[in-house]
Amino acid sequence: MAKVFKALSNPNRLELYLQIVKKQEASYKTSYGCLICEITESLNIGAPTISHHLKELANAELIFTERKGKYLVARVNEEMVNEVNDLLKLHNG
Cβ of 24: how many Cβ atoms within 10 Å? Predict the structure, then answer.
């Protein structure tokens, strides 16, 4: 869990993760995930930095990434979201 919270402690990385969650929810019916190129324009950080943040989110098992043609697609790891949610419930109740 420490890896997860460390990954989300960076403001840019947190914003990137939340954008991925938002885009994935919006495209839930298609279930293809989030095209990274769709959100990079809204963030004021360069491609190499976004790539680094994506790697950190993937290393923390918060997202999965894969190439679809020339596009990079990210999907939220729902299992990890559930684990974090369960942990927070334990500490809240």
Answer: 20
